[in-house]
Design a protein that fits this description.
single chain; alpha+beta; two-stranded antiparallel ribbon; elongated
């Protein structure tokens, strides 16, 4: 497990260390999501774009011949984010 020190500025901003960004596949301009669980543990995840999850839409709803709705998109996004998080953990050796 790697440990990174973050400092909060007076504007409430933090800088993610380059080593973390590289390990997590976070590039300049990426949108991140901060998730805080019930125990107060914070998890930072890269917010995926529609391009990132395009293939997941078919997996999420199958090859049914119908239009995708917002629940389908939300489910596919969540599934793709979970898959991305698993890939990052595997790269880190967790």
């Amino acid at each position: 497990m790697q440990n990174f020190k973050l400092t909060v500025t007076s504007k409430g901003q933090v800088t993610l260390p380059a080593a973390y960004r590289k390990a997590a596949g976070i590039e300049t301009g990426a949108t991140l999501q901060l998730v805080v669980d019930d125990d107060g543990q914070a998890h930072i995840r890269r917010r995926l774009t529609l391009d990132d999850i395009a293939g997941s839409l078919t997996k999420a709803v199958g090859r049914r011949n119908r239009n995708f709705g917002q629940p389908d998109i939300d489910a596919a996004r969540d599934q793709a984010m979970d898959e991305q998080e698993e890939r990052v953990h595997k790269r880190r050796g967790r």
